[in-house]
Amino acid sequence: MHSETVNILAIESSCDETSAAVVQNGKVLSNTIATQKVHERYGGVVPELASRAHMQHIVPVVDVALRDAGVAKSDITAVAFTQAPGLIGSLLVGACFAKAFAQALNVPLIAVHHMQAHVLAHFIDDKPEFPFLCLTVSGGHTQIVLCRDHLDMEVLGETIDDAAGEAFDKVAKMLGLPYPGGPLIDKYAAEGDPLRFKFPMSEMKDYEFSFSGIKTSVLYFLQAQRKADPDFAGKNMKDICASVQHTIINMLMSKLKKASKDLGIKHIGIAGGVSANSGLRKAIQDTGEQLGWKVYIPKFEYCTDNAAMIGITGYYKFLKGDFADMTVSPTARATWH
Ligand code: KG4
Ligand code: ZN
Fold first, then answer.
1. Could you say which residues of the chain have pLDDT below 70?
2. What is the DSSP string of 175-187?
3. 206, exposed or middle or buried, with CB in 10 Å at 0-12, 13-18, 19+?
4. Which residues neighbour 231 within 8 Å (Cβ) at sequence distance 6 or greater?
5. What pLDDT does 248 receive?
6. What φ, ψ does residue 12 adopt, rounded to 5°?
7. Residue 17: which H helix or E strand, with range?
8. Which atom of ligand 1 is nearest to the CA of 86?
9. ∠ at Cα 114 (110, 116), nearest 5°?
10. Using CA atoms, how far apart are residues 32 and 305, in angstroms rounded to an integer?
11. d(C-alpha 261, C-alpha 238), whole Å
């Protein structure tokens, strides 16, 4: 092994995936993800159960990531972990593991912001040109981010209430679908009529979003329809999913178009779990073609939570010498830095 080789072991444990990756000189060698099935029956992530599942998964997941990468523990240069934001119990498991591992190997520790990592997932394969705009849409966040450099980002606007992913998941729950409902809505929507049912689009200022309105309007709509036909949702699943997805995508795209126009930036990316949505991927491609954008869409496995994006971010922080000390602790909410 050359001494200039930088091997980052990355840990992601902010929500319900336990993930570890090895990133060598900015290239992803392995990315192991253990998804926690335990939450399915509860219709959402149960924080206590998530923390316990992380405890059970973390050692085997790291072991597999190291083996897949063919990198020995003794060749790890630094350990990166998700410091914020997320479920505090879940974050603590990853943080404690990362600290212990770094301490044992006597290598530096790197604290990573989960939302910044979602944006930098673009640098796993593509290398977007700066400045670019990133619509980051996940289960907990919906943001338009101006990216000036790898570690120089500014949130231009975000949701004032629910995140886009939350809207997908809550609507899915109302339709009787298991958690996480986003991918299922996507699947049904592909065969449905997006114009069959109309749901209101919230009008927000600047680059702000709001998704609590659509959630409530779907709730009232289903309540009214179910009075006449208790199996209304079952019979109209595809069209309901297509119509809801269409409305959410329109809200996202209208703000993204506004930001691109206002700032004169035509390099545009999407990131986060909801960027796995096929309707949104198509919408950004189509809009990009119409408006002359250069569009960046991460591979599916790098849209939802994964440690590869933590490792990439860790690598850029490593190059800057941006290390955390052993007193670092995770935080559930975190302002952008
Ligand atoms: O980024 P992520 O894995 O975790 C957070 O940081 O929150 O995002 C998870 C969210 C969930 O709300 C999930 O339903 C949504 O992403 N999601 C989707 C799709 N795949 C995942 N939403 C719509 N369509 C999909 N294909
Ligand atoms: Zn995420």
1. 1-3, 336-337
2. TTPPSS-HHHHHH
3. exposed
4. none
5. 98
6. -125, 125
7. strand 17-24
8. 6
9. 90
10. 11
11. 34
Pairing of strands 267-271, 152-158: unpaired
Nearest CA to ligand 1 atom 10: 139
Q: Reduced to 3 states, what is the DSSP secondary structure of residue 208? A: coil
Ligand 1: nearest atom to the Cα of 304: 3
Select from 114, 158, 168 the residue to mutate for testing ligand 1; criterion: most ligand atoms less than 8 Å from CB.
Answer: 168
Residues with Cβ within 8 Å of residue 16, at least 6 apart in sequence:
35, 36, 39, 45, 50, 53, 90, 305
Best probe residue, ligand 1, of 13, 17, 39, 138 (max atoms within 8 Å of C-beta): 138
| Per-residue model confidence (pLDDT) at position 336 | 65
The tokens for 117 are 């990592």
Q: Are strands 267-271 and 132-137 parallel, antiparallel or unpaired?
A: parallel
pTM assigned to the model = 0.95
Contacts of 260 (CB under 8 A, 6+ apart): 133, 266, 268, 291, 293
- Domains in the chain (CATH in brackets) are 7-120+303-320 (3.30.420.40), 128-297 (3.30.420.40)
Residue 287, classed as helix, strand or coil, is: helix
Q: Which residues line the pocket of ligand 1, CB cutoff 6 A?
A: 15, 138-140, 165, 168-169, 180-183, 186, 272-274, 276-277, 304-305
In this structure, how many other beta carbons lie within 10 angstroms of the beta carbon of residue 225? 17
Atom of ligand 1 nearest to the CA of 14: 6
Q: Is 223 helix (H, G, I), strand (E, B) or coil?
A: helix
What DSSP string runs through 101-141? Answer: HHHHHT--EEEEEHHHHHHHGGGSS--PPSSEEEEEE-SS-
Ligand 2 mean position to 136 CA, how many Å?
9
